[in-house]
Amino acid sequence: MSNSIQKEDVLQVSKRLDIKVNEKIISWVLENYESYQSDDPTSTWNLVVESMLYDIPDELKPKIFEFYLDQKVTNWMRTNFEIEADTEEEARKMAIKFVEEGKAEEIGWDEVEGVITPMDVTDNDGYSTQEIYFEDGSMIYQNGVE
Question: 34: part of which helix (H) or strand (E)?
Fold first, then answer.
Protein backbone atom coordinates (compact mmCIF):
# COMPACT_ATOMS: atom_id res chain seq x y z
CA MET A 1 0.00 0.00 0.00
CA SER A 2 1.49 3.36 -1.04
CA ASN A 3 1.47 6.56 0.90
CA SER A 4 -0.57 9.42 -0.45
CA ILE A 5 0.84 12.90 -0.63
CA GLN A 6 -0.74 16.33 -0.56
CA LYS A 7 -0.21 19.56 -2.44
CA GLU A 8 1.75 20.95 0.53
CA ASP A 9 4.20 18.04 0.25
CA VAL A 10 4.93 18.87 -3.39
CA LEU A 11 5.36 22.54 -2.51
CA GLN A 12 7.73 21.70 0.33
CA VAL A 13 10.00 19.60 -1.89
CA SER A 14 9.87 22.07 -4.78
CA LYS A 15 10.85 24.91 -2.45
CA ARG A 16 13.79 22.92 -1.09
CA LEU A 17 14.94 22.17 -4.65
CA ASP A 18 14.19 25.72 -5.84
CA ILE A 19 12.01 24.35 -8.65
CA LYS A 20 9.07 26.52 -9.61
CA VAL A 21 5.80 24.62 -9.87
CA ASN A 22 2.34 25.61 -11.05
CA GLU A 23 -1.04 23.98 -10.51
CA LYS A 24 -0.62 21.74 -13.59
CA ILE A 25 2.68 20.37 -12.27
CA ILE A 26 1.30 19.83 -8.78
CA SER A 27 -1.70 17.95 -10.21
CA TRP A 28 0.58 15.84 -12.38
CA VAL A 29 2.72 14.90 -9.35
CA LEU A 30 -0.33 14.03 -7.26
CA GLU A 31 -1.90 11.98 -10.06
CA ASN A 32 1.28 10.06 -10.92
CA TYR A 33 2.85 9.70 -7.48
CA GLU A 34 1.74 6.11 -6.91
CA SER A 35 3.19 5.00 -10.24
CA TYR A 36 6.57 6.56 -9.48
CA GLN A 37 6.51 5.27 -5.92
CA SER A 38 5.80 1.72 -7.10
CA ASP A 39 8.92 1.89 -9.31
CA ASP A 40 10.99 2.32 -6.15
CA PRO A 41 8.96 1.05 -3.19
CA THR A 42 11.83 1.51 -0.71
CA SER A 43 12.22 5.20 -1.47
CA THR A 44 10.83 7.85 0.87
CA TRP A 45 7.95 10.01 -0.32
CA ASN A 46 10.11 13.15 -0.59
CA LEU A 47 12.69 11.37 -2.76
CA VAL A 48 9.91 10.14 -5.05
CA VAL A 49 8.54 13.68 -5.36
CA GLU A 50 12.07 15.01 -5.95
CA SER A 51 12.57 12.47 -8.73
CA MET A 52 9.24 13.49 -10.26
CA LEU A 53 10.10 17.19 -10.11
CA TYR A 54 13.34 16.51 -11.97
CA ASP A 55 11.28 14.57 -14.56
CA ILE A 56 8.48 17.09 -15.28
CA PRO A 57 7.18 16.65 -18.83
CA ASP A 58 8.08 19.63 -21.04
CA GLU A 59 4.44 20.30 -21.93
CA LEU A 60 3.72 21.03 -18.26
CA LYS A 61 6.62 23.42 -17.73
CA PRO A 62 5.76 27.10 -18.03
CA LYS A 63 7.13 28.77 -21.12
CA ILE A 64 9.49 31.70 -20.72
CA PHE A 65 8.84 34.79 -22.79
CA GLU A 66 11.28 37.66 -23.10
CA PHE A 67 10.34 41.32 -22.96
CA TYR A 68 12.29 44.52 -22.77
CA LEU A 69 11.43 47.92 -21.35
CA ASP A 70 12.69 51.10 -22.98
CA GLN A 71 12.68 54.09 -20.65
CA LYS A 72 13.41 57.70 -21.37
CA VAL A 73 15.57 59.25 -18.68
CA THR A 74 17.41 62.44 -17.89
CA ASN A 75 21.08 62.24 -17.17
CA TRP A 76 24.12 64.43 -16.64
CA MET A 77 27.25 63.87 -18.70
CA ARG A 78 30.65 65.33 -17.87
CA THR A 79 33.20 66.62 -20.37
CA ASN A 80 36.65 67.29 -18.99
CA PHE A 81 38.71 70.00 -20.70
CA GLU A 82 41.53 72.37 -19.91
CA ILE A 83 41.89 76.09 -20.55
CA GLU A 84 45.23 77.84 -20.59
CA ALA A 85 45.04 81.40 -19.22
CA ASP A 86 46.98 83.90 -17.12
CA THR A 87 44.34 84.20 -14.38
CA GLU A 88 41.51 82.12 -12.95
CA GLU A 89 39.00 84.83 -13.91
CA GLU A 90 40.21 84.80 -17.50
CA ALA A 91 40.10 80.98 -17.56
CA ARG A 92 36.50 80.99 -16.32
CA LYS A 93 35.43 83.38 -19.07
CA MET A 94 37.28 81.37 -21.70
CA ALA A 95 35.69 78.13 -20.45
CA ILE A 96 32.20 79.61 -20.82
CA LYS A 97 33.04 80.83 -24.35
CA PHE A 98 34.53 77.42 -25.21
CA VAL A 99 31.27 75.69 -24.26
CA GLU A 100 28.97 78.31 -25.82
CA GLU A 101 30.83 78.00 -29.14
CA GLY A 102 30.17 74.24 -29.13
CA LYS A 103 33.82 73.25 -28.90
CA ALA A 104 33.14 70.96 -25.94
CA GLU A 105 30.90 68.85 -28.19
CA GLU A 106 34.00 67.74 -30.09
CA ILE A 107 35.32 66.11 -26.90
CA GLY A 108 33.94 62.84 -25.55
CA TRP A 109 32.05 62.71 -22.28
CA ASP A 110 31.54 60.41 -19.33
CA GLU A 111 28.34 59.67 -17.49
CA VAL A 112 28.03 61.27 -14.06
CA GLU A 113 27.08 58.32 -11.88
CA GLY A 114 23.99 58.35 -9.69
CA VAL A 115 22.02 61.04 -11.50
CA ILE A 116 19.94 59.04 -13.98
CA THR A 117 16.30 59.96 -13.40
CA PRO A 118 13.36 58.32 -15.20
CA MET A 119 11.24 60.91 -17.00
CA ASP A 120 7.55 61.30 -16.33
CA VAL A 121 5.13 61.59 -19.24
CA THR A 122 4.29 65.13 -18.15
CA ASP A 123 7.98 66.09 -18.54
CA ASN A 124 7.89 64.75 -22.11
CA ASP A 125 4.87 66.73 -23.43
CA GLY A 126 2.61 63.70 -22.98
CA TYR A 127 4.78 61.46 -25.15
CA SER A 128 5.76 58.02 -23.91
CA THR A 129 8.60 57.60 -21.48
CA GLN A 130 8.07 53.85 -21.01
CA GLU A 131 7.50 51.29 -23.75
CA ILE A 132 7.35 47.53 -23.32
CA TYR A 133 8.32 45.33 -26.26
CA PHE A 134 7.78 41.61 -26.78
CA GLU A 135 10.73 39.45 -27.81
CA ASP A 136 9.76 39.79 -31.49
CA GLY A 137 10.10 43.58 -31.24
CA SER A 138 6.39 44.41 -31.20
CA MET A 139 5.40 47.13 -28.75
CA ILE A 140 2.75 45.96 -26.30
CA TYR A 141 2.54 49.00 -24.01
CA GLN A 142 3.36 52.67 -23.90
CA ASN A 143 2.53 55.10 -21.16
CA GLY A 144 1.93 58.16 -23.35
CA VAL A 145 0.81 59.22 -26.81
CA GLU A 146 2.54 57.71 -29.81
Answer: helix 23-39
DSSP β-bridge partners for residue 67:
134
* Residue partners of 30: CB distance under 8 A and separation at least 6: 5, 6, 7, 10
| pTM of the predicted protein model | 0.59
In this structure, the answer to whether residues 83 and 128 fall within a common structural domain is yes
pLDDT 10s digits, 73-94: 999 999 999 999 999 999 999 9
For residue 1, is it within any domain? no
Is 7 in a helix, a strand, or coil? Answer: helix
Q: Do 47 and 78 share a domain, yes or no?
A: no
Tell whether 74 and 129 lie within a shared domain.
yes
